[in-house]
Amino acid sequence: MQSHVAAHRKPRQRSLGGQTARTAFTLALAGAATATAFDGTGQAEPNLTPSQVKAKVAKLYQEAEEATEKYNGAREKATAAEQRLESLRDQAARKEEKLNTARETLGSMAAAQYRSTGLDPAVQLALSDDPDRYLDGAAFAERAGDRQSAAVTQVRRQLREIEQLRGAARVELTSLKTRQAELRTHKKTVTGKLDAARRLLNRLTAEERSRIGGTTSGGGTASGRASRSSADGRDSLPPAGSATVKAPNSRAADAVSYAYSKLGSPYVWGATGPNAFDCSGLVLASYRSAGVSLPRTTYAQIGAGQRVSRSELLPGDLVFFYSGITHVGLYIGDGQMIHAPNPSAPVRVAPIDEMPFAGATRVV
Fold this sequence. Notes:
Blueprint: H1 2-9, H2 18-38, H3 50-116, H4 121-126, H5 131-136, H6 146-202, H7 206-212, H8 222-226, H9 242-246, H10 250-261, H11 279-288, H12 298-301, E1 306-308, E2 318-321, E3 327-333, E4 336-339, E5 348-351, E6 357-362
Antiparallel strand pairs: 1-6, 2-3, 2-6, 3-4, 4-5
Helix pairs in contact: 3-6, 10-11
């Protein structure tokens, strides 16, 4: 009754025509333009000051980095699904080879039987190219001799195993396609955010871009500038042995040394070295050089060791930022870290207090 009454209260809809239609169309275009501007991919607003551009670009880079970590996670899962699918297909192929051998043996028996008494229907099913017909057929083993019964049982078991493997492969293929769709979505988000940031920066003069520095994540700090004073960052290397003295173990010291050796390397989203990195890729590569395997994404890396407080930080600890755990750096002591900031800033030294601190993990 209530829905019936509500239906009577619904106002009549009139078709749009003439000036009304043109007005609606104009409003729709305006709304679409506004929505596009809000998601960071539309035309930038006019008359932005350099400081406003800096703030907007910093926000876009943060959003791009969040999408990058999601992309990295989806790519990791897609790679695992692809490997499982390949393994299942290999297993099925090997079992099919064994099945063919078993069926050849059974065929030899059938030929001999046919010459003497005619081909048994059970053997016909076993030699069939239709597994469903074979598996759904009568319980023929009882009608065959002992030797034939054993051969038929073996073929039947192998067929079932192959069908199970094929079923598992179909599941993995579905999973792989889902991950690939996620990859495309996250890639589109990342490239959209980075393109929007590039357009904003291109509106500034070279002098204005220089004045605001790398715009985010250590771009304008003294330590950030120091780490860029040479192309490879070698003038920022720590005193010999200092990382070893301060780091909690040799693995952490090796990771820090690797990160120092990569100062000045470009930021490339999705990269894990050796010549370019994103933030989690740099941390992963640093510990990989020390013989330690870390997860690919910031979300997983924060759980890859023992959580430590900010006051307990030691060189080699992983330091995370933002409420979404979307950025990570490698702590090197004295309130400093080495990290891969964003496409406008290479791998560099920066203070950990320049971004919202979210937590830290010590790799053990």
